[in-house]
Specification:
single chain; about 250 residues; alpha/beta; Rossmann fold; 4-stranded parallel beta sheet; two-stranded antiparallel ribbon; globular; binds zinc ion
Length: about 250
Amino acid sequence: MNSIFTTIAAHGMHCFHDLLDLLFPPSCLSCGASLLQSSILFCESCLKKIKFVTEPYCTCCGTLFPSGENHLCGICLVSKWSFTRARSVIVYNETAAKAIFGLKFGGRKAGLKTFKNMKEQSVGCQDLISPDRIIPVPLHMNRLRQRGFNQSLLLARAFFPDQRNKIIKTALRRQRDTIAQTGLTGLSRRKNLRDAFVVEKKDDVSGKKILLIDDVFTTGTTVNECARVLKQAGAERVDVLTLARVAEKF
Ligand SMILES: [Zn+2]
Ligand SMILES: [Zn+2]
């Protein structure tokens, strides 16, 4: 171990992460293959399968279009969301799903740096509001105890390392331990989430521009329900940023 400490002393703290990689060799977040570097934790083959959300997309909900200009999608033309804009960094495909699963259920927090790097390259995130408050979608206390962390809070901290003072993890509370939304249809999703979230302190959100953070945008029901209660508590505007987005044709 002595030589390790000598190396830290010799090369300074900026080498500390390289050293950690030596002690715990980095591996691909999706397939687990060993990697030589840790700045992007995907192997070459998995990285090719990661698809960034790029234009054209819906100016409101951020759904991707195969071609043409940015415009409102069919859903946004007829329905009113409580959020103003929703954007995501990558498409939720099999490769992304494995990486997110690793974070959520395997606690692979090493992946957060990769997600941050990807967010910095993302086009869509640039037209989100500059927020007064950054609020992660909360987990119910039972699930938080089980998992030990809220992945949306970890993502918020990773995405905005310089704005940690704006991140309010207690602004929203999940008061009902809803069943997982996966597999539910639109109407059942909305019913399942009814009264699921409450604003803890109105002062945290009233008159504020809020950016909601979640891991995956599937149908938008969860973030929309959060946005609805935030607006009800007086939020001026709510935008949404998720790491990944379900996009069936991509
Ligand atoms: Zn891989
Ligand atoms: Zn839309």
